Amino acid sequence: MTRIVSEIVRMGLEDEVRWFIMGDDDTVFFPDNLIRVLRKYDHNKMYYIGSNSETHLQNINFAYDMAFGGGGFAISYPLALAIEKMQDGCIQRYTGLYGSDDRIQACLAELGVPLTREPGFHQCDVHGNLFGILTAHPVAPLVTLHHLEIVDPIFPYMTRLQALQRLKIAAEVDSDSLMQQSICYDSTRNWTVSVSWGYAVQIIRGSITPREMQRPSRTFFNWYNRDEPASFAFNTRPFTKHPCEKPFIYYLSKAANNAEINVTVSEYELYQMPHPWCWWKAENPEKFHKVEVYKKPTDPHKWDEGPRRDCCRVMHTDKKSTVVIDVGECREGEFLEPLQ
Questions:
Q1: Which CATH code of 2.60.40, 2.60.120, 2.70.130, 2.102.10 fits the domain covering 168-328?
Q2: Strand, coil or helix: what is 127?
């Protein structure tokens, strides 16, 4: 694996190739989003693009400077040319390293090229349920997922393949927006609402601040299958701190473009799970069986500019047992003010 870059360079494809993309045999790529990320960078310069592990100890054991191969990484053509000229000798100096991604990073260290981190590459060095990670995805395109044969299926009551096929429905409609989180409040019902477009909607009684909602809830364990909050390379939060704050989860059921009104329409159905009794003065989300999300097309230059989450608004509707949400770019002066 380590020598693949050099061997492809020797094929003389400089007129056809801008980037070399590495991944494992169980890496799922979202090609449109991969292109969106790479076009931000000048392929005529030396770039090494990827991300780290989610588990802190994995980064310690390997390197925080390394792009993990399961999450995938990209090497620009000029960098690949430089690697080809020195790789044979380089890999002989690092025979004790574990994997091809580790050896490549060692050679790049000799070349002086650092890792450019893009948070949409996901090594997924966790066990359990990816729900917490996916519903609080960074404000960046979803590029890869890994280890899907180890974690739970990302949609309930499905096989892993069926779950990926469900996610593909949303990806084909608007891959730009896939997993992008929007947070809003319904002051009438006393709800906090989080939309992770193309995947899931959460309705939570009471007021959860955006600062908390944008942190992944711990529905997963670290790579060593232990529940240790300090073992992750990012901030997390408990799945719920209070019985009344246990989220009502709605999973994607369908998504499509509506050309007549120039929006995407996605529907999410309530996942039936037990909730403890709640004494708060907040409307019970359980009587709402479906969420409809209407979203304007994503600005094609969104990822070329400073990142910002989309905003969402809970809309009035006469539809029974349905919550309707509008998602789109934040308006001038719009910000999130938690419920008092």
A1: 2.70.130
A2: strand
Q: For 266-291, b where at least 16 C-beta lie within 10 A, e where not — what string?
A: bbbebeeeeeeeeeeebeebeebebb
pLDDT (0 to 100) of residue 285 = 96
CB atoms within 10 A of CB 174: 19
Q: What is the pLDDT of residue 339?
A: 83
Q: Where are the alpha helices (DSSP H) in the chain?
A: 4-9, 31-38, 56-61, 77-93, 100-111, 131-134, 160-174, 210-213
Return the pLDDT at 1. 63
Q: Say if residues 154 and 247 touch (Cβ distance below 8 Å).
A: no
pLDDT at 98: 84
Q: Cα(260)–Cα(56) distance, rounded to whole angstroms?
A: 48
CATH architecture for the domain at 4-117: Alpha-Beta Complex (3.90)
C-beta neighbour count of 338 within 10 angstroms: 15
> Where along the chain do its domains lie?
4-117, 168-328
Nearest to 73 by CA among 161, 163, 1: 1
Residue 195: φ, ψ to 5°: -105, 120
Upper half-sphere CA count for residue 319 (Cβ side, 13 Å) = 13
CA angle 132, 137, 138 (to 5 degrees): 140
Alpha-carbon distances of 76 from 69, 129, 137, rounded to whole Å: 16, 34, 26
- How many angstroms separate the CA atoms of 191 and 268, rounded? 17
How much is the pLDDT for 288?
Answer: 97
Residues of the chain with pLDDT under 70: 1
Q: What pLDDT is recorded for position 203?
A: 98
3-state secondary structure of 1: coil
